[in-house]
From TrEMBL:
GO aspect biological process, one term: purine nucleotide biosynthetic process
Enzyme Commission (EC) number: 1.5.1.5, 3.5.4.9
Pathway: One-carbon metabolism; tetrahydrofolate interconversion
GO cellular component: cytosol
Domain Tetrahydrofolate dehydrogenase/cyclohydrolase NAD(P)-binding: residue ranges: 140-287
UniProt keyword annotations, A-Z: Amino-acid biosynthesis, Histidine biosynthesis, Hydrolase, Methionine biosynthesis, Multifunctional enzyme, NADP, One-carbon metabolism, Oxidoreductase, Purine biosynthesis
Gene3D superfamilies: Leucine Dehydrogenase, chain A, domain 1 (3.40.50.10860), NAD(P)-binding Rossmann-like Domain (3.40.50.720)
Highest rank taxon of the organism: Bacteria
Protein's recorded name: Bifunctional protein FolD
Gene: folD
Subunit relationships: Homodimer.
Length: 298
């Protein structure tokens, strides 16, 4: 059996096109561009790359990008003061504070300082609560992208057994809520889970985001499963390589022999993340201006 390789880039391109149209209409109606502010503290090179691609995507779709780079030793009060300035700035519709933050900072307090109406990561206490309560809200980009991919592929996935590997606030936890809302039977696995292969053998849908390269082996997966791999792990460079290969949390080549469909790394789930961030930004912009969103295909 040969599996379908889910094309995250194609999905992202379609979404970007719809967002781009809405961004143009927003500018015409609001008399300003929708704006996204990204705050990066410290100098992690991988985070640098993400922040740059976010900025480029924002401008390419006709929105305004505000990027703030703060030194690694920025004090808590300064970071919170910056978030509060962005909360009060009417040209900013979305605020993303790149995570993880340097250890001396209180991440929970920084997140809680973000205005929930500008929280394009969906991780403020208000938005996390809204998600659990089934209220309309902004939702973390990667899990929302995974759900959109599943909806495209399956339509209705009521009653399916879903296993989520990883329980982070940006991925595993919101993913569980989204799949629960789609009437899946949801199991969350994590580093203390005793029998991961045993759980995965029952799973119709597997969503992985633990950051352990190729942790999940092909023969752990149920024949015909759908696998969404949110892991982005860079292996050590081999001889003659400048950079190591990127791999997911699932042993991709092995999985191909077992599953119905799987997302590759790169080009899968991760490739949708920034497009969904653009989606969340334009949705926040319309709401913050009190405008009706003309397109419900977002
Ligand atoms: N507050 C916050 N929100 C985030 O959403 C957030 C964050 N912090 N911290 C870091 C992670 C990581 N992240 C990605 C963004 C783009 C790709 C992406 O474009 N991936 C492509 C390219 C991968 C590559 O070549 O490096 C792919 O998977 O095909 C992946 C991962 C957002 N994150």
């Amino acid at each position: 059996m040969s599996a379908t390789i889910i094309d995250g880039k194609a999905f992202a391109a379609g979404l970007r096109e719809r967002v781009g149209k809405l961004a143009g209409e927003f500018e015409a109606k609001a008399g300003r561009k929708a704006g996204l502010a990204v705050v990066l503290v410290g100098e992690d090179p991988a985070s640098e790359v993400y922040v740059r691609s976010k900025g480029k995507a924002t401008v390419a779709l006709g929105m305004e990008s505000f990027e703030y780079r703060l030194p690694a030793d920025t004090p808590q009060e300064e970071l919170v003061a910056m978030v509060e300035r962005l909360n009060a700035d009417p040209s900013v519709d979305g605020i993303l504070v790149q995570l993880p933050l340097p250890k001396h900072l209180d991440e929970k307090a920084v997140i809680a300082a973000v205005d929930p109406d500008k929280d394009v990561d969906g991780i403020t206490p208000t938005n996390a609560g809204r998600l659990v309560l089934g209220m309309d809200t902004l939702v973390s980009c990667t899990p929302l992208g995974c759900t959109m991919i599943l909806k495209d592929m399956l339509g209705d996935f009521s009653g399916m057994d879903a296993v989520i590997v990883g329980r982070s606030i940006l991925f595993g936890k919101p993913m569980a809520q989204l799949l629960l809302a789609e009437n899946c039977t949801v199991t969350m696995a994590h580093s203390r889970t005793r029998d991961l292969p045993g759980l995965l053998r029952r799973a119709d849908i597997v969503v992985a985001a633990v950051g352990v390269p190729e942790l999940i082996r092909g023969d752990w997966l149920k024949p015909g499963a759908i696998v969404l791999d949110g892991g982005i792990n860079r292996l050590e460079a081999g001889p003659g390589e400048a950079k190591g290969r990127l791999v997911g949390d699932v042993a991709f080549d092995e999985a191909l022999d077992h599953v119905k469909a799987i997302t590759p790394v790169p080009g899968g789930v991760g490739a949708t993340t920034i497009a969904v961030l653009m989606r969340n930004t334009i949705v926040a912009a319309y709401r913050n201006e009190g405008l009706d969103l003309p397109d419900d295909t977002l």
